[in-house]
Amino acid sequence: MESWRRNVLILWAAVFIASACWTMVMPFMPVFLGDDLGVTAGVTAWAGLLGAAGSGFSVLSAPLWGALGDRFGRKAMMVRAGIFLGLSYVLMSLVRSPQELLGVRIMIGALTGFIPAATALVATTTPELHLGKALSLVATGNQAGSILGPMVGGVLADLVGIRHTMILSGVFVLAATLLVLVAVREEFQRPAQQQGNVLGDMRQMLRVGPLALVLLTSILMMTSQAAMEPILVPYIKELLGPGQPNWMAGVIYSLPGVAFVIAAPWWATLGGRWGYATTVSVGLLGGALLTVPQALVGGGMAMGFFRLTAGLALASVSPGISALITEVVAREQRGKAFGLNQSAFNLGAMLGPLLGGFLGDLVGIRWVFVLTAVLLMVSAAWCWTFVRVQVQQRTGTDLSA
After folding, report:
1. DSSP readout, 190-215?
2. Looking at the whole model, is its pTM more than 0.85?
3. SS (H, E, C) 11-28
């Protein structure tokens, strides 16, 4: 088997494990805050703050890790991130207050970045001809993990408690890191010493070409999705009715991941034909239209249907954005570019939980879905109007094709 194909398969497995471990724990933070840490007021606001804090520090650190990956190797950055992430899960299991939990979340945001490092590694070790499909495949590993994680996390929360689930997550992430260390091959040559600095290099990248426009699409999209995180599991449990187990909420929560695995390869094929900016725009618009009904449903079955169909539409977005970055950024600078994109995602992941958590407490959970739909519509309009045109000019493709 060719080296790059072997890398993609191994990285798929590692990303799958990391994503599953993350979603075994994070969707149940509101439950953990209430049941284990004794938070009785403002639970969704606390959950939003926890999500925002980690993401906020990732905004600052992700470009640095991306730039260091360009200098020292993306595999090294992935191993570093996996070690810190695995240990962080264990620390999270030991906290006794929401303030301590907040501290661990900040540490995760500042020191990790396992999945973005995997994306950068794929982007720099895969031949250009196969890059779109390789990125899409690894992204399906992320989403497949997000399917399994909430289901397993819900079952484990019922059986052994969330704290033990956190410990198991840490062990699995460390095992995935060992797999990457032993099995992934990267023929990395450290570039010659150059003048300048990381911040200056990144400013230069943002001034040239459409990268900044692509990153703003990432911010808008991630803000819309992250706004639902603090309220989603409590809302689903409310729709299911009292006495229902956590695993049922986990199944409904994970349905967009099922949709992603089904639809992402199809979207990748369409992106190669129509252009990734077009498919990202269409997916964002479809996601917006299918999010609105989630504010109006009266039961768990209906919520599951619209979660699934919205996921089918939004499956175009994250791999499409990754492919857009590879189109407009030179191969030797993709570590920095993916670091910047991770910062864009993390900025959205910081803003979204704050907006969703506090809006849910102030005016009700259902209004969070309206906010999500509006943000998706804005991001679709932005990508279609600005990103598509700029990418066409940069790559010389025909918009009418």
Report:
1. PPPP-SS-HHHHHHHHHHSTTHHHHH
2. no
3. HHHHHHHHHHHHHHHHHH
